Amino acid sequence: MLFIRQEHIMRCFLVLFWLISLLPISDQGKYNLVGSEEPIKAQVGSDVVLPCLVKPPVNASSATVEWMFDSSKTVHLFRNEADERDSQDDRYKDRTYLNHAMLELGDVSLKLSNVTKNDEGIYSCFVHRLPDHNKPEERHVTLVVVDGKENENPEGHSGGPETGVIVGVVVVVAAIIILAFITYYVVCRHRGEQNHRGNGNQGDGAEEIPLQNLEQPNQNV
After folding, report:
1. Distance CA 85, CA 94 (A)
2. Sign of the C-alpha dihedral computed for residues 91, 95, 100 and 103 taken in this order
3. Contact 60, 54 (CB under 8 A)
4. Considering the chain, what is the average pLDDT of its residues?
5. Which helix (H) or strand (E) holds 149?
6. Which of 45, 170, 190, 201 sits at 20 to 30 Å (Cα–Cα) from 35?
7. What span, in angstroms and rounded, lies between the C-alpha atoms of 203 and 56?
8. Quick one: which H or E segment has residue 96?
9. What is the CB neighbour count within 10 angstroms for residue 96?
10. Does residue 140 have a pLDDT over 80?
11. Separation of alpha carbons 127 and 109, rounded Å
């Protein structure tokens, strides 16, 4: 009887282990996407990279990578180890690039060319079917588009710190040059007045000498 009971217990354990093995194992937290916490700024007409990296790094060549704008427009879709251009929104035709070689390092960043003002907004990066990871990952990246003037003057100042330093140096040098010219002019004028006075005194003495010489013969007589 004891032997029979032990056999039943062993069978129950085996059935229990088998049922546990059928339960889905959560892979939450195995991978996550990392991007920029701050908005990405780009100038109109330039190229920009929207960063998105799988951490820890894993080969994402066999995964599905989808970039969307405003959670409604497909910016770029990579699936079955190839880019699917047919599903791409017309606004982004021939303007996106996903580096397939970098996918092997877990870099799913997207390059957007010839940026326009309408490209400004929130972009979402979705990565599905990572190795041994069924949970889709998502990351948001904010793009801010500025024109040339705004890009040069993002904070409303006349220029950046380097421009301010250069302007300050130019002003100081100009002030020194002006001060030197003023000093030179004053000194030259002062010397000119002294020379003029000296020449005047010498002229008066020259006029008095002949008079003295003329008076001497009269004294001898």
Report:
1. 9
2. negative
3. yes
4. 78
5. helix 148-152
6. 45
7. 100
8. strand 96-98
9. 19
10. yes
11. 11
* Residues facing 128 on adjacent strands: 64
By residue count, the chain amounts to 221
Counting Cα atoms < 13 Å in the Cβ hemisphere of 55 gives 8
Q: d(Cα 50, Cα 139) in Å, to the nearest integer? A: 11
**Cα–Cα distance for residue pair 126/164, rounded to 1 Å:** 43
Taking the C-alpha atoms of residue 141 and residue 36, their distance in angstroms, rounded to an integer, is: 7
Could you identify the residue written with the tokens 């699936």? 79
**H/E element, 187:** helix 161-220
Could you count the other beta carbons within 10 Å of the beta carbon of residue 99?
Answer: 14
Q: What is the pLDDT of residues 55-88, one digit of tens each?
A: 999 999 999 999 999 988 999 999 999 999 999 9
Sorting pLDDT into bands at 50, 70 and 90, what band is 197? Answer: low
**The dihedral sign for the CA sequence 150, 154, 159, 163:** negative
